[in-house]
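1st attempt posting a full record on here, be nice pls
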Amino acid sequence: MNDQHILLVEDDESLQQLIEKLLKNNNYIVSKANNIDEAQKLVKLFIFDLIILDVMLPDSTGLEFYKNSIKDRINTPVIFLSALSDVDDRISGLELGADDYIGKPFDSRELILKIKKNISKKQSLDVVNLGENTEFDLKKEQLLHKSVKVNLSSNEVKILKLLINNSHQYLTRDLLNTELGLDFLSRSGDMQISRLRLKLKKECNLEDLIRSVHGKGYKIFL
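the predicted structure (as tokens):
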């Protein structure tokens, strides 16, 4: 079973249903948004492997949403949906740094190939430098200090990946608890981050890598 999670942002109901069915038939997990407001709420709750984003939406443009909310999100590829005639929109999206685009109407096989290509490219960005002599391998899910593996629990690995993949923003308790499968009111996630910070300090000499701000959440400083 594929556990890759895709956010589909499309206001055309018939097209949204068509793409959703296509994605589910290819074993992707799908979250849907009809507008930017809904999409912004979802990106605060989930970590997506890929985002399919329509350029023209009722409350703003996909380009603005990408620029303001997605652009600096590490490891989250974006495929823009745009009419074949909207050359300027496609060029603008690519200039902003979007990973790909597909014109409407499109062939379902082409969309699936683009999704696979971009998720595969994302997964090839394996190693993130965390500090002097310390790196985290996203693919192998290993923390290395001076080339020696530092033992992490499964939740500590998940937290570190969440922080790295959201390094441009604060990780709220709601997002943390959602991804760890905890109750929204649980403080367990906070305790696990405290243990991870202590381990990073003791094992890797990284004292301020993960910081917390009251009312905002946690952030990793790479």
